[in-house]
Amino acid sequence: MLYGDDPKSREMDFRGFVELDVAVHTRKEPASIRWLFRVLDLRDDGFLDRTEIKMMTESMVKNLATLEGWSNFVADDIADEVIDMIHASDPTRITVDEVIASRMADTALGILIDYHAFLKYENREEEAAA
Fold first, then answer.
1. For the EF-hand domain, which residue ranges apply (predicted)?
2. Whole domain around residue 65: which residue ranges?
3. Spatial contact of 118 and 110, defined as CB atoms under 8 Å apart
4. Which CATH number does the domain housing residue 114 bear?
5. Could you count the other beta carbons within 10 Å of the beta carbon of residue 55?
6. Span 21-38, pLDDT tens digits
7. 1 falls within a domain
């Protein structure tokens, strides 16, 4: 429950939309990281486990295949990269404090929620070579 609404409600009001937009565009800030983490924490257990992260990366890979007509990315590998970049103490999950401490929140969260950030991360080697 993010806004004090009825926990059974799955609709987003305008305030919620504005909060989401601000959090996505300021995902380097601790308050935004905490807000986004709560949204992504599907089990509401205080961490994102590998299964949750993989589910999000699978969705991103499917969207990429649909929008671009191709995808050669492996969701398992991407999930492992996200966990590795956070330097999680437990290799099967990440906590919000680890995300903040890693200074990689913008990249890690971007991979999970932002199509353009995902593509930028995945194409970083080609861009560096150019």
1. 28-63
2. 14-129
3. yes
4. 1.10.238.10
5. 17
6. 999 999 999 999 999 999
7. no
In a domain, 7, yes or no: no
Tens-place pLDDT, residues 52-65: 999 999 999 998 88
Report the b/e string of 108-128 with b at 16+ CB within 10 A. Answer: bbbbbbbeebbbebbeeeeee
5 located within any domain: no
Predicted structure pTM score? 0.84
pLDDT in tens, 112-126: 999 899 989 988 877
- Is residue 44 domain-resident? yes
HEC string of the chain equals CCCCCCCCCCCCCHHHHHHHHHHHHCCCCHHHHHHHHHHHCCCCCCEEEHHHHHHHHHHHHHHHHHHHCCCCCCHHHHHHHHHHHHCCCCCCEEEHHHHHHHCCHHHHHHHHHCHHHHHHHHCHHHHHHC
